[in-house]
Amino acid sequence: MIDVLVIGGGNAALCAALMAREAGASVLLLESAPPEWRGGNSMHVRNLRCMHDQPQDVLLEAYPEEEFWQDLLKVTGGVTDEKLARLVIRASSTCRDWMRRHGVNFQPSLSGTLHLSRTNAFFMGGGKALLNAYYRSAQALGVQVRYDAPVDAIELDGDRFVAARVKGERIEAKSCVLACGGFESNREWMRAAWGQNERGEWPADNFIVRGTRFNQGVLLKAMMDAGADIIGDPTQAHCVAIDARAPLYDGGIVTRVDCVSLGVMLNRDARRFYDEGEDFWPKRYAIWGRLVALQPGQVGYCVIDSKPVGRFMPPVFPGVKADTLPELAQQLGLHVATFMQTIGDFNAACRVGSFDHTVLDDCHTEGLAPAKTHWARPIDTGPFYGYALRPGITFTYLGLKTDEHAAVHFGGKPSANLFVAGEMMAGNVLGKGYTAGVGMSIGTAFGRLAGTSAARAALREAAHAAA
Q: What SUPFAM superfamilies does this protein map onto (predicted)?
């Protein structure tokens, strides 16, 4: 019988598998995807948010625990477990040497990501390189990996893990780590979670999945049915406004449109609906998917003029371009008169001071609702550009309640041999909102923790059996 069974194939699962193997346990990892699609959403990641008290190679200055905590508190609105959040924050300061030992390399932030140069460590080669490094290390250490191995059922004895079933095969293990993601790719579940709005629309029908198609939530649902303790709102997710032309799955980070804070966002009625300049983009980009999801038709339109061009990461698709604002409105399919009134009111309300997109500058609007509190400049210099945006779901926050040992809980009590990591438990830390790189912080911290706990449980059982 295998010591530790790890279900999942992304960052959290691999961290768990590597830690369990390093602790002396035999490990089998089950990845539902084929090899070419291995890694779940981790193939699309770029960086890890890291606490540090002084400069560290690719990280500038300092990013102390309390500042990290305050950043998380702000984006979640307090919907977070402080004990587990601080566990993640502290773990983020000590994991990079371990990551390097397993082949992960880091690089300085590139232009266009400079807001993150102090807080986030970027992976050289991105998520694919990180995954490849971990899989190579796992193979070298003797971790068994099976692809095309979707687990469709879990066998429990009360709150204890007994076995998993893969295509009818029963696989027993002394302990198990669940790290197989949320349910964002399950269209029916997403539709049921979001329901029908007052306009008679089913918002989830217009959602795009930024990552893997394999996160169907099968084991999350199985654990819910088995009585595991659940945390989180099924409608809360890492949800970003992305180009409406993005593919349904796996468009990744390049489909994000990063010029929202430098222009205005309009809904289908050609009206603004939120402060585009509320805070730095890495802290606020992940609110825009949900904001767009609440608009008519689940669509928004980012409009800029020529002034911001070159100040943001270019998206994969070029924007709609027009020499005049009325022409742009027509190309975007928006009511021209309303569009012109909205832009005119915005332009008139702008109070331009010293524009600087790298700081919270003094360019703002007055007498306008909603206000734009930073980086507000008139949209008056052609050519003009527009991007139609849809909600892009990265991962859902509904998950399994856990603790500082990464144990799955049943009726408030931790299981002795069933553990959870990654997106399946991220809702303990992320009740809502997001800030760049924190998903990798959570996955790495709890992946390593779950692997250690699972190995300890398995080896303890083996020692007890031998006695």
A: FAD/NAD(P)-binding domain, Succinate dehydrogenase/fumarate reductase flavoprotein, catalytic domain
